[in-house]
Specification:
The complex is a heterodimer of chains A (194) and B (463).
Chain A: E1 4-7, H1 17-25, E2 46-49, E3 54-57, H2 66-70, E4 76-79, E5 82-85, H3 95-99, E6 106-109, E7 111-112, E8 115-116, E9 118-126, E10 129-134, E11 136-139, H4 152-156, E12 162-165, H5 167-190
Antiparallel strand pairs in A: 1-12, 2-3, 4-5, 6-11, 7-8, 9-10
Chain B: E1 9-11, H1 21-25, E2 31-32, E3 40-41, H2 51-55, H3 70-76, E4 90-92, H4 96-104, E5 109-114, H5 135-144, E6 149-150, H6 153-174, E7 180-181, H7 186-195, H8 209-225, E8 232-238, H9 242-248, E9 253-254, E10 257-258, E11 262-265, H10 266-275, H11 297-300, H12 307-321, E12 339-346, E13 349-357, H13 363-370, E14 378-382, H14 403-420, H15 430-440, H16 446-452
Helix pairs in contact in B: 6-8, 6-12
Classes of the chains: A alpha+beta (194), B alpha/beta (463).
């Protein structure tokens, strides 16, 4: 079963530190200070704020992933209990964005060593003349695969609002629910309330 | 009543998510608002330490639309519009436009001073490792920017020790009001003025090093260069956002001349250097100018918590005993705990000291003093977590896990720089000896009292 990270809306304080940590973790250069961040924060999770809830939203790593099922170029593959995007294959067609039931996919500009990448063939016509067109790909949570301390969002959250939902967590959770159901049913039977 | 000058720290309501982490670090509970809604600052309570700026992680996202454009937000903050770094909800109003104007004004004779904590952090703004020590490059950069005199707050820190050390010895030996409090940290001074006005007389009457330097620029410095004080534009580079407030205080004026005309934070100076196209990391090492740029290791220590105390002890010990202090490295005042108590045995005199970092930690001690239970002579208070190296105007570290190493490295460079100095005690600085001989006379004398001391006032807001 795939692992995913779930934000707890009851704990989240909406500080956006997770978005910053996510963006920094996915750069190919080391960034410690605000001034070194000379490109926008490109986060793979998104903090949702409404009048009633604050919660970070990120990929659920679906077992039957709608995004992968609609991808016409096979840019989403399954690897180590996670659905991974092959950025070099992605053509930015946005079908995965529409297919995702949670709205957890973004099309984001691609940066290499702090520089935006541009398309080879496509130009944009503007008042300033022809401009290069940014290279935009699908990006989503990859559980910070390969990062020594695990997912950066969990590490930075001051409110402990994230939980890693992995097979062990699910097994224990389901097991506990079954036990409490059995106890509840047994209690009702003995007290004659069934 | 809201004082216009205290409106330096702001929170952008469009960007603020109401997480209230800023309220958690605010030492005076000046950040008000409900969880999940934009916060606002109670300017009467705010001590402008800028710790909220350092912790804020609510940034302007490119995926959201705001009523005010990024360019307009940068303009409101007095930050260069060409800046590429992300912008956050909590910020300070900058002073770059004023300084740029002075630098292009041919009538103005610009004198700049640089606080000790700037040289242990500014290199971070140019990609060098956390805590890189760069006094020489800093002086070179200021010279290339076109300042006429590159002076140093460290010199004035030495001067502060002469005055404050003498004041302490006088209060101890002649029976003045004790305990005496340091008055270098403007946020701490404002806190006493508004929360504990009955304790104002405990504050040392010394101006802070920033203000002492400013006074000296427009008197001794003016004489040295044959310039009219009117033509001197006095700029300070500080790790601190509250220094902007301090420089505008009406008490910080001598004979009609405001001691300091404009204050830039470490980050603002970095913007200026970048805008001027100066390649900081490859700058040659240059010296600060004399006479007001020469300093001892003791003066440099002011940027770390316990530093003023250590510098004061080095001098006070010798003032009291007339003998050299056995060990200049006074370890017990160093460290990162919020309160550190100790005793200095100077001959027959035992001076009991307290060092406090983090303004919240001082409240129980002030209550102790109010009850008449204080059993110590001298207290150093710094508002920021580990002193000025962690000030609100220092380079902003993005993730909290990195702040610890940033502070540790900046502090270790501080002590390394002290050890590198020829002179380690303020009273041994030859330019300090010269200024007393040629100009000031003696510590606590008539002239030094007029120029280097001030008074504090009870503020409208009181607890």
């Amino acid at each position: 079963m795939n692992t995913f990270i779930l934000g707890n809306p009851g704990k989240c304080i909406g500080c956006k530190a997770c978005e910053i940590a996510c963006s920094v973790a996915h750069l190919d250069t080391s960034v410690v200070k605000a001034n070194e961040m000379n490109l926008p924060f490109i986060s793979r999770l998104n903090l949702v704020r409404t009048s009633s809830v604050t919660m970070p939203i990120q990929c659920r790593q679906c077992e039957d992933a709608p995004c992968a099922n609609v991808c016409s170029v096979g840019a989403i593959v399954h690897k180590d209990n996670c659905n991974v995007v092959l950025e070099e294959k992605c053509i930015g067609c946005k079908e995965c964005m529409l297919a995702c039931p949670f709205g957890m996919i973004d099309m984001q500009p691609k940066f290499t060593e702090g520089e935006a990448e541009f398309q080879v063939g496509l130009k944009v016509e503007s008042l300033q003349g022809e401009q290069k067109k940014a290279y935009v790909v699908m990006q989503k949570c990859d559980l910070c695969k390969g990062r020594a301390n695990g997912p950066a969002c969990i590490e930075v959250c001051p409110a402990d609002a994230f939980v890693i939902v992995n097979p062990d967590f699910i097994r224990k959770n389901i097991h506990d629910k079954r036990v409490s159901s059995a106890q509840e049913i047994a209690k009702r039977k003995y007290t004659g309330n069934s | 009543m809201v004082d216009k000058d205290t409106d330096i720290i702001k929170i952008d309501a469009e960007l603020c998510t109401g997480c209230r982490r800023c309220a958690e670090v605010c030492p005076v509970d000046a950040i008000e608002g409900k969880q999940g809604t934009p916060q606002f600052i109670n300017v009467e309570k705010c001590v402008m330490c800028g710790q909220c700026i350092q912790i804020c992680s609510a940034y302007a996202s490119i995926f959201e639309e705001y009523r005010t454009s990024r360019e307009d937000k940068l303009r409101e903050r007095n930050m260069p519009v060409t800046l590429e770094e992300p912008i956050f909800a909590a910020y300070n109003i900058g002073d770059l436009p004023k300084v740029k104007e002075a630098l292009t004004n041919t009538e103005a004779f610009t004198m700049v001073q640089c606080a000790p904590a700037v040289r242990v952090a500014i290199a971070e703004e140019f990609g060098m490792p956390l805590g890189s020590l760069a006094p020489g490059k800093l002086a070179a950069a200021l010279r290339q920017l076109g300042f006429n005199r590159i002076y140093d707050t460290n010199f004035a820190a030495d001067l502060t020790i002469m005055e404050e050390g003498s004041e302490l010895v006088q209060r101890i030996t002649e029976g003045g009001l004790l305990p005496m409090f340091t008055s270098c940290c403007p946020a701490w001074v404002k806190f006493v003025e508004q929360e504990y006005p009955e304790l104002i007389p405990h504050l040392s009457s010394c101006k802070s090093p920033q203000q002492m330097a400013g006074t000296m620029f427009k008197t001794y410095g003016a004489q040295a260069d044959g310039v009219e004080p009117d033509n001197i534009y006095s700029v300070a580079i500080m790790p601190c956002t509250c220094k902007k407030f301090e420089s505008q205080r009406p008490e910080m004026n001598t004979d009609g001349y405001q001691n300091v005309d404009a204050v830039l934070t470490t980050r603002e100076l970095a913007y200026l250097i970048k805008e001027a196209g100066i390649d900081f990391s490859s700058l040659p090492e240059e010296d600060f100018d004399k006479p007001l740029g020469m300093y001892s290791g003791a003066g440099h220590l002011f940027c770390a918590t316990g530093g003023v105390m250590e510098a004061a002890i080095r001098t006070a010990y010798e003032l009291i005993t007339n003998e050299p202090i056995p060990n200049v490295n006074i370890q017990y005042v160093r460290g990162s705990q919020g309160v550190r108590r100790g005793v200095v045995h100077a001959g027959d005199v035992k001076v009991k000291t307290v060092v406090v970092s983090g303004l919240k930690n001082v409240v129980p001690i002030l209550e102790e003093i109010k009850k008449g239970n204080a059993d110590f002579h001298f207290m150093e208070v710094m508002t920021c977590p580990v002193g000025c190296v962690s000030g609100g105007g220092q380079p902003k570290v993005l993730l909290p896990k990195d702040t610890e190493i940033a502070y540790k490295n900046r502090i270790s460079s501080t002590y390394r720089h002290d050890e590198e100095q020829t002179y380690r005690k303020s009273h041994e600085n030859p330019e300090i000896k010269a200024i007393y001989k040629n100009f000031l006379g003696e510590p606590l004398g008539h002239k030094s009292h007029h120029l280097l001391h001030t008074e504090y006032k009870q503020r409208g807001y009181c607890k």
